[in-house]
Amino acid sequence: MTDDKIALDRKILRALSSDTRVNILKSLKRPMTVSELSRILNLPKSTIHENLEKLIDAGLVKKRKSEGRKRVYYELTEKGKRLLLSHKTRIILLLSSAASFICGIIAIYFSIKIPEEAVKAVRRVPLEQNYLISGVVLLALGVLFLYLALACGRSKRRLKSFDQKSRNK
């Protein structure tokens, strides 16, 4: 888990200390030009450009010139993406897993504790079977979400170690 963490040095802390720079990072869901960011954030191009340079210096954004055109696109680096997205995805998966586990356990509990009179009143499929099936399905979903949350962290560690090995060559 410690491999997923980003070392927050002074440059990154300075970059994140400005609301404008944080808003630029949040807006860079795809490669964008200074003009596009200026329109979205309703700020002058000079302000956007100045703040982008600080984000580039911190290693959170990279500059890419388009082939055959004079446009310059800015996009998040891997460090920038990890900073914004990694924990959000894992938290959502872990919360989904917990909710599925809890609902599954409650459904299985009701399948065991339901009174026989209620079962006799329903003639199609016995009610406890419905609860039991729902409980098992929800528990399986909980296991799946937990696996995805853990796999999300593992794949990022593998990418990081592969990236470090390729840099060393």
N-to-C CA distance: 25 Å
What is the average of the pLDDT values? 75
Runs in which pLDDT lies below 50 for 5 or more consecutive residues are none
Number of strands: 2
CA radius of gyration: 25 Å
Query: What does the main sheet amount to?
Result: 2 strands, antiparallel
Compute the number of helices: 7
Structural class computed from helices and strand pairing:
mainly alpha
Beta strand %: 5-15%
Order of helices and strands: HHHHEEHHH
Question: Notable features of this structure?
Answer:
mainly alpha, 2 domains, Arc Repressor Mutant, subunit A, single chain, two-stranded antiparallel ribbon, 169 residues, 7 helices
Structure commentary:
The chain has 169 residues and is mainly alpha-helical. The protein has two domains: 75 residues, Arc Repressor Mutant, subunit A; 90 residues. The protein is 72% helix and 6% strand. Helix 2 packs across helix 4, helix 3 packs across helix 4 and helix 5 packs antiparallel against helix 7. It is elongated and about 75 Å long. The model has no long low-confidence stretch (mean pLDDT 75).
